[in-house]
Amino acid sequence: MDRDWRSLRLGIIATDAIAIVAAYAAAAAVRFGFPELLRNSPMLTACVVLGLDGFLVTLALAWQQGTYRRGALMGGHRVYPPLVTAVTYGAVTMTVLSHFVGSPLPASRGWLVGCWSGSILALFISRLVWRRVALQWRKGGALIRRILIAGANQQGIAVAQQLHDPLRHGTVVVGFLDDYERPGTEVLPGLAVVGHPSSAAIKARELKADEVVIILGALAWESQRQLAELVTRPDSPVEGRISATFYDLLTTSAELNHVAYVPMLSLNRNRLSGFNAATKRFLDQTVSGAMLLALAPLFGYWRVKAWTLRSRMFEFQSVLGTCGRPFRLAGLHAGLTGSPVLARLPALWNVLCQDLSLVGPRPIRMEELPAHERWRANLFAVRSGLTGLWRLRESEDAVEERVALDLYYVRNCTLTLDLQILLQTGRELVRRSMGRRSLLARWKAEGAKAVVLEVASQIPDAASWEEVFEGVPAEATGEGQR
């Protein structure tokens, strides 16, 4: 695993270096022209000096901000702001240095701007390419993190279920360490307690584990201390992470900071508030209103067809919205169309009325409320969505798995993430219209529960825009209730 990652990291650094040099050279060619540069020796020298300065500063800051760590490549869109920061500081140092270089370059703002914008574009493309490479390596069994879970209580089991997915998350759980269960006790199918926390170093070597995830509250205080000392030693065979016992109850994300030299987790406020919340409402109503107007002839056709068939045009089901307020989710009657996509279109009216959002958590039916009771306050903190991350999974998921995606969205929702999800939705709709296999998830009633039957993922690590997923809840269609 470490050898594979080192090879991948060297490739990323080399590609980033080439991308920056190519961006600088392209900007010089556009601004000055290579023939002119070759004839003008002072200008060429200044370009080389300034370019070398920006190159070194950009790579150094990219390294310092952690863009070459394991989590950065598969960490989604979070890697891009640090890259922009590194490139920006590189361009600033070039600008400052240009005033001390005896050349016409201080007036060449066009070249400096070209270097800045070209580097950002080139680095973004580089990361997207290497991300695809990493995903292919992962499918071949490389870059998989092997994890020991320290704590076999309910919380530890829930964490293990989420992490035990090599293709989606690049992690596989190899066993549990626990104070209270005997070694050999099977906690999950195929996963057992492998030893006491005091044997973590030995078990990590035997099982070739890369990390130990410590579940706070699941172990005795002494065991937690021993594990913390183990994973922080310079010669430790494993890395360590801590999972707070209330992670699935947090509405927002948490950040580590220090107060009076004491490390503490700060709970962030809801990300969408004020201007962002108003913008989201404006986009919801503008887009849904425009689509309803554009689709008016189609709705007229369905109205006539419903009269002809002497059937209802719409069917409704009761779902829960913001603060648990129930509303009627609209959908076409099953006999009017066999397309699950078209059957969902009336829900745009719910978006226009602000019962629903274009992007948000999965709508919860009244019958499903008991299964979601522990997350109720968090899931109802924002409006449910016509599409969202909850639609992109590779297999049928348990309630906890679907809720984990909803909570991730609530904690990390931004307008950028919404746009990424909508773009992914549009792409899958085009695939379906072309007769290709669509990745749109389907929501079918099964007894008193609605479960996801068809889902797929671009792999959310939980949140680059390739990890963004799509799906639209609707009422009954020709294939069953959705």
UniProtKB/TrEMBL annotation:
Belongs to the bacterial sugar transferase family. This is Bacterial sugar transferase domain-containing protein. Residues 343-429 form the Bacterial sugar transferase domain. GO terms for molecular function: phosphotransferase activity, for other substituted phosphate groups. Pfam families: Bac_transf (PF02397), CoA_binding_3 (PF13727). Keywords: Membrane, Transmembrane, Transmembrane helix. InterPro entries: Bact_transf (IPR003362). The chain crosses the membrane at residues 12-30, 42-63, 83-105, 111-130, 282-302.
